[in-house]
Amino acid sequence: MRYALLALFLAAFPALAEPPQIDNVKVRKTGDTWRFDVTISHPDTGWDHYADAWRILDMQGNQIAIRELAHPHVEEQPFTRSLSGVRIPDGTTQVQVQARDLPGGWNPETKVITLP
């Protein structure tokens, strides 16, 4: 009986173990700033469990910019959100993009982007 309850419990919460994934990143430079269009997939279930942000990091892990996501995207998967006006330090040729969810926090995996 214990094993059946454990199996039922684990089957009820499979999405909690899945961190948000960066599926695609499009980058373009406009003047002195950059625009990032980031596509994320995540099994959002509602306000208690959803992808709530993504950020741009330098290759040392320092945050350059962050895009907060204001609501769950339960019916819109994957979804793309943009961030404009990003200032990238001169001489930077690569950055990382990282996604976060509630309640799991930052996905330790990042997507490395070579700037055009």
Short key terms for the protein model shown above:
three-stranded antiparallel beta sheet; five-stranded antiparallel beta sheet; 48% strand; 116 residues; 8 strands; Immunoglobulin-like; mainly beta; 1 helix; globular
Q: Overview of this structure, please?
A:
This protein has 1 helix and 8 strands. It is mainly beta. The radius of gyration is 17 Å and the shape is globular. 20% of the residues are buried. The model is unreliable at 4-12 (pLDDT under 50). Keywords: Signal. Residues 1-17 form the signal peptide.
SSE map:
Elements: H1 2-12, E1 21-30, E2 33-41, E3 50-57, E4 63-68, E5 79-86, E6 94-102, E7 105-106, E8 111-114
Counting structural domains, the number is 1
Quote the beta fraction: over 45%
Q: Characterize the overall form.
A: globular
Q: Helix count, per DSSP?
A: 1
Strand element count: 8
Helices and strands, in order, run as HEEEEEEEE
The fold-level CATH name is Immunoglobulin-like
CATH class: Mainly Beta
Rg over CA atoms: 17 Å
The helix content is: under 10%
Give a quick summary of the entry.
This protein is mostly beta strands and 116 residues long. Helices cover 9% and strands 48% of the residues.
